[in-house]
Give the backbone structure.
Amino acid sequence: MNERPKAVVLLSGGLDSTTVLAIARSQGYEPCALSFRYGQRHAIELERARDVAQAMGVTNHVVAEIDLRVFGGSALTGDAEVPKGRRGDEIGGGIPVTYVPARNTIFLSFALAYAEVLGATDIFIGVNALDYSGYPDCRPEYIEAYERMANLATRAGVEGGRPLKIHAPLSSMSKADIIREGVALGVDYSITCSCYDPGPEGQPCGGCDACLLRARGFAEAGLQDPLLDRSFR
């Protein structure tokens, strides 16, 4: 019996990364999940990432520790207030204070190192360039450029092995389409956390960009967000 090829999946515990994990699994990969404790104010997402990994039968889940608070520069790693109640035309219309400088570049570099150790040539990331908050490191041209760089920086690239591929399957999907895809794959969105400023048990604030995008996605998909039915201690 052939073993499934390993793939590193960046898993935050949010809606998008959970859907990507389900997609990687459905495509025949053995997902090796990689999460980060980077000083984020919404660290509850790591508990959700653990729950998601367990629910999907992921046996290899690593949490890397890096503290981006030493740099600051973001409402997610500092004391600045998370914007609430922005209009739909404001979201994605500029780079908000919730942008963490170079976060995806940092995360992908860890994923690249992990993939080399595993002998994997596939990395999955849940970036989206349609329904998102305007982060520059979510754009398709960024992912393409990083993939080119990665294939210059790895042993396989130098020795002529199979090229590394960075999969961003959600890149051109609306949030509603992402949710429909996840539901079709059996994702339990009640165990995810999308909020930038959640309560101590993960209660969504309902007003940050991530909460608003999530709510709009479920509404456009014609579905009820099961997270809203979850009881919190």
Remarks:
- The chain is about 35% helix and 10% strand.
- The helical segments are 15-26, 44-55, 103-118, 140-150, 155-159, 175-184, 209-221.
- Residues 117 and 183 are 32 Å apart (CA to CA).
- The chain has a mean pLDDT of 91.
